[in-house]
Amino acid sequence: MTSKKIIKKTLLISASVCSLLVMILxxxxxxxxxxxxxxxxxxxxxxxxxxxxxxxxxxxxxxAGLYKQNGVDHVLCNPKTHIAVFTYFPAKTNAGQxxxxxxxxxDYKVEQFLxxxxxxxxxxxxxxxxxxxxxxxxxxxxxF
Length: 144
What we know:
Elements: H1 3-33, E1 44-50, H2 56-67, E2 72-78, E3 83-88, H3 95-105, E4 110-112, H4 117-123, H5 132-143
Antiparallel strand pairs: 1-3, 1-4, 2-3
């Protein structure tokens, strides 16, 4: 074979492999980002901001109070940051219900943390409107 044929064959194989890898990436992003139905094993996370100073004992009481709520799986409460984070099963409850029930059973001043649009956009660099991956994903999303 001549060197031109070897170069052409190498470039063709390289382009084919790169195209295949891009397609695999696009399919992966599509599968990961599409909505999934809620099943009994789905777990979600929520944050509750405590609007008062709390001690370590208060953090323990808050943790115990959240564990008593229906559908709560795991709880972490940090007295220094005044934040409680909990996981729950969306098939059984939602974060708003958990926090409302907790508020009605205790005297703590709490509210659910709901991220703003800027927080949501900064959460995942893949979904940023300016990233190359997002542009590729959007292109293929509109095709399919």
